[in-house]
Structure formats: structure tokens, C-alpha cells
Amino acid sequence: MKWIADFRNLCLVALTGLLVSTQAVQAADTPASLSGGKVVSAVEAQKLQAAGAVVIDTRVAAEFGEEHIKGAISVPYREKSAKAANYNPAEDEFNLSKLPSGKSTAIVTYCNGPACWKSYKAADTAIKAGYTNVNWLRDGIPDWKAKGLPLE
User: Fold this and answer.
1) Same domain for 62 and 114?
2) Least C-beta-crowded within 10 Å: which of 26, 42, 100, 135?
3) 11 lies in which domain range?
């Protein structure tokens, strides 16, 4: 019967580790706000796009190639920095020259949802580069798809 107690204890240790891991993943979600920019829903992003906003997919090119928001442009954010609000942008790569030349042009950045930091960092980088109409689709392509909005 000792093996049953040992097995139960092993299961409890494994479950505790899983719960701690899950909490760590949830803690790594992106911030709920964007200093100097606006967090938008998929429906708001679509309205902005219809009014002329440039929608920027910050995911890797392969993900963009699989599917993306209709009319979006691919400007991958290559991150090596920490997935945290105090990340070091010098460790990352983002080609600002692919953004609109007019810094007052509305832009919308997106990636794979709240656990994906690329669109947050891209929006933050654009704001720090002087862009004044930055919108961040925090819930990303999953929210867009859930609303049945057009994809390519």
C-alpha cells in the first residue's frame, strides 16, 4: 500500500507543478493597456481599417502566409527580449521603415492574442518612434476570427 501513497504524492507534486506553470503563463500575458496608444477590439480595428488605417501583422512571415487579416501588411517583430512590459527593444528587430511615412496615419498592430507580445512591442516601438495614432488589437487574430471578419 505504500506504493499507492507514493503514487498519490507524485501526482500531487505533478499537479502542483502544472498549476504553477499555468499561473506563470497567465502572468506573462501582455498588459491590458498601451501607454500612448489605444487598445481596440476586432470590430473597432475593422472600422479603423475601413477608414484608412494600416493593419500590421507582426507575426512571422510563415504565419502571415497561412492566414492574416484581409488587407494587412506583414512587418514581423523579431523578439529576443523578455516578454514583459519593461522589455529591452535594443534586443529586438522591427522594421519601422515598412510603416506608413506619415506618423499621424492610423495603424493597427496585431499578432496571436494576449499571450503574444509581438504586436504590443511593435505598437510601443511605433509610439516611441513618434507615431501618434497607434491602435493595438490585443486579442489579435483569434478575436478577428471569432467575429467572422475577413481573412486572406
Assistant:
1) yes
2) 26
3) 1-29
Same domain for 118 and 54, yes or no, is yes
What residues are paired with 135 via a beta bridge?
38, 108
Q: Which tens digits make up the pLDDT trace of 82-135?
A: 999 999 999 999 999 999 999 999 999 999 999 999 999 999 999 999 999 999
> Which of 80, 82, 90 has its CA nearest to residue 128?
90
| 115 and 41 inside one domain | yes
Grid coordinates representing 66? 497561412
Decide if 16 contacts 71 (C-beta within 8 A).
no
* Separation CA 29–CA 115 (nearest Å): 4
Alpha helices in the chain (DSSP H): 2-27, 42-50, 61-66, 118-128, 140-146
Residues 36 and 25 both lie in one domain: no
Three cell numbers at 79? 523578439
> Do residues 45 and 94 both lie within one domain?
yes
Nearest alpha carbon to residue 49 among 126, 105, 122, 96: 105
pTM (predicted TM-score): 0.81
